[in-house]
Amino acid sequence: MFAMTVALGFGLGLLAPHERLNASIVQHAGIATVAAGCLFAAWGIICLKVAGTTVKPGAPVLAFVCKGPYRISRNPMYLALLVIQLGLGMMLGNWGILVTTPLLAGLLHVLSIRPEEHCMRLRFGSEYHAYCGRVRRWI
User: Fold this and answer.
1) Which of 40, 131, 136, 43 is nearest to 86 (CA)?
2) Domain edges within the chain
3) CA geometry: angle at 61 spanning 55 and 62, to 5°?
4) Which of 108, 84, 109, 113 is nearest to 97 (CA)?
5) What are the pLDDT digits (tens) for 23-63?
6) Alpha carbons 71 and 59: distance in angstroms, whole number
7) Is pTM, for the whole model, over 0.85?
8) Is the pLDDT of residue 16 over 60?
9) How far apart are CA 105 and CA 61, in angstroms?
């Protein structure tokens, strides 16, 4: 999904390029944004690995993780993808990548998050329900 929305956005941005203002500032902010997204994703992956569960979307969950970035967001790695996509759009000065970020969020929500949350509710019951009451889906 991520690669698809970035490619779509990149193509849209090439179809209707615009003149960039303060391109250097925006580019550097984009680099920092991509780096922050990568670090946030890595933190989530480390927490899952330490807990002994999978990082592969759709694979059976072996442990309920609510530490690290999972205290901030129920979906830190998906959130990281959105942040990385925004950073790429800024870094490349491509508005199309920026405007397709909500499309990525929608696809992630429907195709990944909802099914995963359903599985988590079935597997972890009231513990997961309480967690959902404490921690927001995105931020």
Assistant:
1) 40
2) 23-134
3) 105
4) 84
5) 788 899 999 999 999 999 999 999 999 999 989 887 888 99
6) 22
7) yes
8) yes
9) 22
